[in-house]
From TrEMBL, chain A:
Keyword Membrane: yes
InterPro entries assigned to the protein according to its UniProt record, in alphabetical order: Brnchd-chn_aa_trnsp_permease
Transmembrane annotation, as ranges: 24-49, 55-79, 134-161, 167-185, 197-225
Family, per entry: Belongs to the AzlC family.
PANTHER family, sorted: INNER MEMBRANE PROTEIN YGAZ
Chief place where the protein resides: membrane
Origin: domain of life: Bacteria
Keywords, sorted A to Z: Cell membrane, Membrane, Transmembrane, Transmembrane helix, Transport
Pfam families xref list: AzlC
Membrane topology: Multi-pass membrane protein
Protein name, entry field: AzlC family ABC transporter permease
Localization (cell): Cell membrane
Keyword Nucleotide-binding: no
UniProt organism field: Streptomyces spinosisporus
From TrEMBL, chain B:
Top-rank taxon: Bacteria
Protein's recorded name: AzlD domain-containing protein
Pfam families in the record: AzlD (PF05437)
Keyword list, A-Z: Membrane, Transmembrane, Transmembrane helix
Length: 232, 106
Protein backbone atom coordinates (compact mmCIF):
# COMPACT_ATOMS: atom_id res chain seq x y z
CA UNK A 1 0.00 0.00 0.00
CA UNK A 2 1.32 3.38 -0.91
CA UNK A 3 1.87 5.99 1.63
CA UNK A 4 -0.84 8.61 1.95
CA UNK A 5 1.70 11.14 3.05
CA UNK A 6 2.05 13.87 0.46
CA UNK A 7 3.91 17.10 0.25
CA UNK A 8 2.48 20.17 -1.40
CA UNK A 9 4.77 21.80 -3.96
CA UNK A 10 3.26 25.23 -3.27
CA UNK A 11 3.12 25.24 0.50
CA UNK A 12 5.98 23.19 1.90
CA UNK A 13 5.63 22.11 5.49
CA UNK A 14 6.09 25.18 7.68
CA UNK A 15 9.47 25.29 9.30
CA UNK A 16 9.36 25.97 12.97
CA UNK A 17 12.38 28.26 12.95
CA UNK A 18 10.93 30.37 10.12
CA UNK A 19 7.74 30.82 12.12
CA UNK A 20 9.71 31.68 15.23
CA UNK A 21 11.80 34.35 13.50
CA UNK A 22 8.78 35.71 11.61
CA UNK A 23 6.74 36.01 14.76
CA UNK A 24 9.13 38.60 16.13
CA UNK A 25 8.68 40.70 12.99
CA UNK A 26 4.91 40.20 13.33
CA UNK A 27 4.99 41.39 16.92
CA UNK A 28 6.93 44.56 16.07
CA UNK A 29 4.78 45.26 13.00
CA UNK A 30 1.58 44.61 14.94
CA UNK A 31 2.55 47.26 17.46
CA UNK A 32 3.45 49.69 14.66
CA UNK A 33 0.03 48.88 13.16
CA UNK A 34 -1.64 49.71 16.47
CA UNK A 35 0.13 53.07 16.51
CA UNK A 36 -0.87 53.75 12.89
CA UNK A 37 -4.54 53.15 13.71
CA UNK A 38 -4.30 55.22 16.88
CA UNK A 39 -2.50 58.15 15.22
CA UNK A 40 -4.99 58.26 12.35
CA UNK A 41 -8.04 58.32 14.59
CA UNK A 42 -6.48 60.70 17.13
CA UNK A 43 -5.80 63.07 14.20
CA UNK A 44 -9.50 63.17 13.36
CA UNK A 45 -9.97 60.50 10.65
CA UNK A 46 -12.91 58.08 10.94
CA UNK A 47 -12.04 54.50 12.01
CA UNK A 48 -12.68 53.02 8.54
CA UNK A 49 -9.96 55.13 6.85
CA UNK A 50 -6.88 53.50 8.47
CA UNK A 51 -8.59 50.09 8.46
CA UNK A 52 -9.55 50.06 4.76
CA UNK A 53 -6.24 51.67 3.78
CA UNK A 54 -4.30 48.93 5.59
CA UNK A 55 -6.21 46.16 3.86
CA UNK A 56 -5.95 47.62 0.35
CA UNK A 57 -2.63 49.48 0.38
CA UNK A 58 -0.81 47.32 2.94
CA UNK A 59 2.45 49.28 3.08
CA UNK A 60 3.39 50.81 6.43
CA UNK A 61 5.62 53.70 5.42
CA UNK A 62 3.33 54.80 2.56
CA UNK A 63 0.30 54.66 4.86
CA UNK A 64 1.98 56.76 7.55
CA UNK A 65 3.06 59.31 4.93
CA UNK A 66 -0.34 59.49 3.22
CA UNK A 67 -2.16 59.97 6.53
CA UNK A 68 0.51 62.46 7.64
CA UNK A 69 -0.05 64.55 4.52
CA UNK A 70 -3.84 64.33 4.96
CA UNK A 71 -3.73 65.37 8.61
CA UNK A 72 -1.32 68.21 7.79
CA UNK A 73 -3.90 69.53 5.31
CA UNK A 74 -1.90 68.64 2.20
CA UNK A 75 -4.95 67.24 0.40
CA UNK A 76 -5.69 63.77 -1.03
CA UNK A 77 -3.75 64.32 -4.25
CA UNK A 78 -0.48 65.09 -2.44
CA UNK A 79 -1.17 62.23 -0.02
CA UNK A 80 -1.59 59.73 -2.87
CA UNK A 81 1.49 61.02 -4.70
CA UNK A 82 3.68 60.72 -1.59
CA UNK A 83 2.48 57.19 -0.90
CA UNK A 84 2.98 56.09 -4.49
CA UNK A 85 6.47 57.56 -4.60
CA UNK A 86 7.38 55.57 -1.48
CA UNK A 87 5.96 52.39 -2.99
CA UNK A 88 7.78 52.48 -6.34
CA UNK A 89 10.46 50.37 -4.64
CA UNK A 90 8.00 47.49 -4.36
CA UNK A 91 8.38 47.03 -8.15
CA UNK A 92 12.06 46.21 -7.66
CA UNK A 93 11.19 43.94 -4.72
CA UNK A 94 8.55 42.17 -6.81
CA UNK A 95 11.15 41.43 -9.47
CA UNK A 96 13.56 40.11 -6.85
CA UNK A 97 11.08 37.61 -5.38
CA UNK A 98 9.12 36.73 -8.56
CA UNK A 99 10.67 33.27 -8.86
CA UNK A 100 9.95 32.57 -5.18
CA UNK A 101 6.24 33.42 -5.56
CA UNK A 102 5.82 30.86 -8.35
CA UNK A 103 3.83 30.61 -11.57
CA UNK A 104 0.21 29.85 -10.66
CA UNK A 105 -2.00 32.87 -11.23
CA UNK A 106 -3.58 32.69 -7.79
CA UNK A 107 -0.11 32.68 -6.24
CA UNK A 108 1.03 35.59 -8.41
CA UNK A 109 -2.03 37.73 -7.69
CA UNK A 110 -2.04 37.03 -3.96
CA UNK A 111 1.74 36.99 -3.57
CA UNK A 112 2.13 40.40 -5.23
CA UNK A 113 -0.04 42.02 -2.54
CA UNK A 114 2.18 40.51 0.19
CA UNK A 115 5.42 42.08 -1.12
CA UNK A 116 6.74 44.30 1.69
CA UNK A 117 10.19 45.39 2.89
CA UNK A 118 10.12 42.94 5.80
CA UNK A 119 8.89 39.91 3.87
CA UNK A 120 11.32 40.47 0.97
CA UNK A 121 14.25 40.85 3.38
CA UNK A 122 13.19 37.74 5.29
CA UNK A 123 12.77 35.75 2.06
CA UNK A 124 16.08 36.75 0.48
CA UNK A 125 17.91 35.95 3.73
CA UNK A 126 17.11 32.21 3.30
CA UNK A 127 19.63 30.04 1.49
CA UNK A 128 17.76 27.43 -0.56
CA UNK A 129 14.75 27.88 -2.91
CA UNK A 130 12.32 25.76 -0.86
CA UNK A 131 13.07 27.65 2.31
CA UNK A 132 12.69 30.92 0.43
CA UNK A 133 9.22 29.97 -0.75
CA UNK A 134 8.16 28.88 2.74
CA UNK A 135 9.65 32.06 4.22
CA UNK A 136 7.79 34.28 1.75
CA UNK A 137 4.36 32.80 2.48
CA UNK A 138 4.86 32.39 6.23
CA UNK A 139 6.14 35.93 6.67
CA UNK A 140 3.77 37.46 4.10
CA UNK A 141 0.48 35.94 5.26
CA UNK A 142 1.30 36.30 8.95
CA UNK A 143 2.38 39.92 8.56
CA UNK A 144 -0.77 40.79 6.61
CA UNK A 145 -2.98 39.31 9.33
CA UNK A 146 -1.10 40.87 12.24
CA UNK A 147 -0.75 44.29 10.60
CA UNK A 148 -4.47 44.60 9.88
CA UNK A 149 -5.57 43.33 13.28
CA UNK A 150 -3.12 45.78 14.87
CA UNK A 151 -4.45 48.74 12.86
CA UNK A 152 -8.06 47.87 13.75
CA UNK A 153 -7.18 47.56 17.44
CA UNK A 154 -5.29 50.87 17.38
CA UNK A 155 -8.10 52.68 15.55
CA UNK A 156 -10.63 51.45 18.12
CA UNK A 157 -8.37 52.23 21.08
CA UNK A 158 -7.52 55.73 19.86
CA UNK A 159 -5.02 57.63 21.98
CA UNK A 160 -5.07 55.24 24.97
CA UNK A 161 -1.70 53.66 24.05
CA UNK A 162 0.63 56.56 24.82
CA UNK A 163 3.96 57.22 23.15
CA UNK A 164 5.30 54.01 21.58
CA UNK A 165 8.78 55.55 21.20
CA UNK A 166 9.19 54.85 24.92
CA UNK A 167 9.49 51.13 24.20
CA UNK A 168 12.27 51.59 21.63
CA UNK A 169 10.15 49.99 18.93
CA UNK A 170 11.31 52.45 16.29
CA UNK A 171 14.72 50.72 16.50
CA UNK A 172 13.19 47.30 15.80
CA UNK A 173 12.61 47.79 12.07
CA UNK A 174 16.18 48.88 11.22
CA UNK A 175 17.41 46.08 13.50
CA UNK A 176 15.35 43.52 11.56
CA UNK A 177 16.98 44.77 8.38
CA UNK A 178 20.45 44.58 9.95
CA UNK A 179 19.89 40.94 10.89
CA UNK A 180 18.56 40.03 7.46
CA UNK A 181 20.87 42.04 5.19
CA UNK A 182 24.17 41.63 7.02
CA UNK A 183 24.85 38.06 5.81
CA UNK A 184 24.49 39.15 2.14
CA UNK A 185 26.71 42.19 2.72
CA UNK A 186 29.26 40.06 4.49
CA UNK A 187 29.69 37.40 1.82
CA UNK A 188 29.27 39.35 -1.43
CA UNK A 189 31.80 42.13 -1.99
CA UNK A 190 30.07 43.45 -5.12
CA UNK A 191 26.73 43.84 -3.38
CA UNK A 192 28.49 45.38 -0.37
CA UNK A 193 30.11 48.07 -2.54
CA UNK A 194 26.79 48.94 -4.17
CA UNK A 195 24.90 48.95 -0.85
CA UNK A 196 27.43 51.20 0.89
CA UNK A 197 27.39 53.76 -1.94
CA UNK A 198 23.59 53.56 -2.14
CA UNK A 199 23.09 54.05 1.61
CA UNK A 200 25.54 56.99 1.63
CA UNK A 201 23.69 58.64 -1.28
CA UNK A 202 20.32 58.10 0.41
CA UNK A 203 21.53 59.65 3.68
CA UNK A 204 23.16 62.59 1.89
CA UNK A 205 19.99 63.63 0.06
CA UNK A 206 17.47 62.87 2.83
CA UNK A 207 17.27 66.43 4.21
CA UNK A 208 16.75 67.93 0.74
CA UNK A 209 14.25 65.73 -1.10
CA UNK A 210 10.69 64.36 -0.47
CA UNK A 211 10.25 61.09 1.44
CA UNK A 212 10.70 58.06 -0.80
CA UNK A 213 13.24 59.67 -3.13
CA UNK A 214 16.40 58.91 -1.06
CA UNK A 215 15.87 55.15 -1.15
CA UNK A 216 15.22 55.22 -4.91
CA UNK A 217 18.41 57.22 -5.48
CA UNK A 218 20.27 54.49 -3.58
CA UNK A 219 19.81 52.28 -6.65
CA UNK A 220 22.48 54.43 -8.32
CA UNK A 221 24.86 52.41 -6.11
CA UNK A 222 24.37 49.57 -8.59
CA UNK A 223 26.75 51.48 -10.88
CA UNK A 224 29.54 49.80 -8.88
CA UNK A 225 28.17 46.31 -9.60
CA UNK A 226 30.49 45.84 -12.56
CA UNK A 227 29.98 43.67 -15.61
CA UNK A 228 31.45 40.37 -14.44
CA UNK A 229 32.45 38.53 -11.33
CA UNK A 230 35.94 39.68 -10.44
CA UNK A 231 38.50 36.86 -10.66
CA UNK A 232 39.17 35.32 -7.26
CA UNK B 1 -17.23 59.05 -4.11
CA UNK B 2 -15.49 61.30 -1.65
CA UNK B 3 -11.88 62.44 -1.92
CA UNK B 4 -10.55 60.17 0.84
CA UNK B 5 -11.99 57.07 -0.81
CA UNK B 6 -10.44 58.15 -4.12
CA UNK B 7 -7.07 58.65 -2.38
CA UNK B 8 -7.15 55.17 -0.85
CA UNK B 9 -8.21 53.51 -4.10
CA UNK B 10 -5.58 55.35 -6.17
CA UNK B 11 -2.82 54.53 -3.70
CA UNK B 12 -3.95 50.90 -3.47
CA UNK B 13 -4.22 50.43 -7.25
CA UNK B 14 -0.87 52.09 -7.96
CA UNK B 15 0.89 50.13 -5.23
CA UNK B 16 -0.59 46.83 -6.41
CA UNK B 17 0.47 47.60 -10.00
CA UNK B 18 4.07 48.18 -8.84
CA UNK B 19 4.03 44.95 -6.87
CA UNK B 20 2.56 42.92 -9.70
CA UNK B 21 5.24 43.81 -12.30
CA UNK B 22 7.72 41.16 -11.18
CA UNK B 23 5.31 38.25 -10.51
CA UNK B 24 3.32 38.97 -13.72
CA UNK B 25 6.39 39.02 -15.94
CA UNK B 26 7.92 35.93 -14.37
CA UNK B 27 8.14 33.03 -16.82
CA UNK B 28 6.52 35.03 -19.66
CA UNK B 29 9.36 37.31 -20.56
CA UNK B 30 12.80 35.82 -20.64
CA UNK B 31 14.96 38.27 -18.73
CA UNK B 32 18.71 38.12 -19.23
CA UNK B 33 20.69 36.65 -16.33
CA UNK B 34 22.23 40.06 -15.77
CA UNK B 35 18.80 41.61 -15.10
CA UNK B 36 18.13 38.87 -12.52
CA UNK B 37 21.48 39.54 -10.85
CA UNK B 38 20.84 43.29 -10.80
CA UNK B 39 17.30 42.81 -9.39
CA UNK B 40 18.67 40.67 -6.55
CA UNK B 41 21.51 43.12 -5.84
CA UNK B 42 19.08 46.05 -6.16
CA UNK B 43 16.81 44.57 -3.50
CA UNK B 44 19.72 44.38 -1.04
CA UNK B 45 20.79 47.94 -1.97
CA UNK B 46 17.23 49.21 -1.32
CA UNK B 47 17.03 47.36 2.01
CA UNK B 48 20.43 48.70 3.09
CA UNK B 49 19.32 52.25 2.21
CA UNK B 50 16.07 51.77 4.17
CA UNK B 51 18.16 50.50 7.05
CA UNK B 52 20.50 53.52 6.97
CA UNK B 53 17.76 56.15 6.63
CA UNK B 54 15.50 54.32 9.09
CA UNK B 55 18.24 54.10 11.69
CA UNK B 56 19.47 57.69 11.43
CA UNK B 57 16.67 59.96 10.21
CA UNK B 58 13.11 60.90 11.10
CA UNK B 59 11.07 63.25 8.88
CA UNK B 60 14.19 64.35 6.99
CA UNK B 61 16.32 65.20 10.03
CA UNK B 62 18.58 63.36 12.48
CA UNK B 63 16.57 60.95 14.63
CA UNK B 64 18.63 61.50 17.82
CA UNK B 65 21.18 59.13 19.34
CA UNK B 66 18.96 56.56 21.02
CA UNK B 67 17.75 54.80 17.85
CA UNK B 68 21.12 54.53 16.05
CA UNK B 69 22.56 53.36 19.40
CA UNK B 70 20.10 50.48 19.46
CA UNK B 71 20.73 49.65 15.79
CA UNK B 72 24.49 49.67 16.41
CA UNK B 73 24.02 47.09 19.18
CA UNK B 74 21.90 45.07 16.73
CA UNK B 75 24.67 45.21 14.13
CA UNK B 76 27.28 44.03 16.65
CA UNK B 77 25.03 41.15 17.74
CA UNK B 78 24.27 40.17 14.14
CA UNK B 79 27.97 40.28 13.28
CA UNK B 80 28.62 37.80 16.08
CA UNK B 81 25.83 35.65 14.61
CA UNK B 82 23.48 36.05 17.53
CA UNK B 83 19.96 34.62 17.02
CA UNK B 84 17.46 36.87 15.22
CA UNK B 85 15.35 37.35 18.36
CA UNK B 86 18.37 38.56 20.33
CA UNK B 87 19.36 41.03 17.60
CA UNK B 88 15.93 42.67 17.36
CA UNK B 89 15.17 42.73 21.10
CA UNK B 90 18.70 43.98 21.78
CA UNK B 91 18.02 47.02 19.60
CA UNK B 92 14.64 47.84 21.15
CA UNK B 93 15.85 47.41 24.72
CA UNK B 94 19.01 49.47 24.11
CA UNK B 95 17.02 52.30 22.54
CA UNK B 96 14.39 52.26 25.29
CA UNK B 97 17.08 52.28 28.01
CA UNK B 98 19.03 55.10 26.29
CA UNK B 99 15.83 57.17 26.13
CA UNK B 100 14.99 56.51 29.76
CA UNK B 101 18.50 57.06 31.16
CA UNK B 102 20.35 59.56 28.97
CA UNK B 103 18.78 63.01 28.95
CA UNK B 104 18.48 64.42 25.43
CA UNK B 105 19.06 61.08 23.68
CA UNK B 106 15.59 61.46 22.07
Amino acid sequence: MRSLQRTSPVFPAPRRDLVRDSSLVWLASGIVGVSFGAISVAGGLPVWVPVVMSLLVYAGSAQFSAVGVLLAGGGPLAAAATGLLLNTRTAAFGLAVADVIGRGWAARLLGAHLVTDETVAFTLAQSDPLRRRAAFWISGLGLFAVWNVGVLAGALAGGALGDTARYGLDAAFPAVLVALVLPALRTDARVRRCALLGAALALAVTPAVPAGVPVLLALAGLALYGRKEAPA
Amino acid sequence: MNATVALILALAAGTYAFRLVGPALHGRVRLPQRVHDLAAAGAVVLLAALLATGALTENGTFAGWARPGGVLVAAALAWRRAPFVVVVLGAAVTTAVLRAVVPGAA
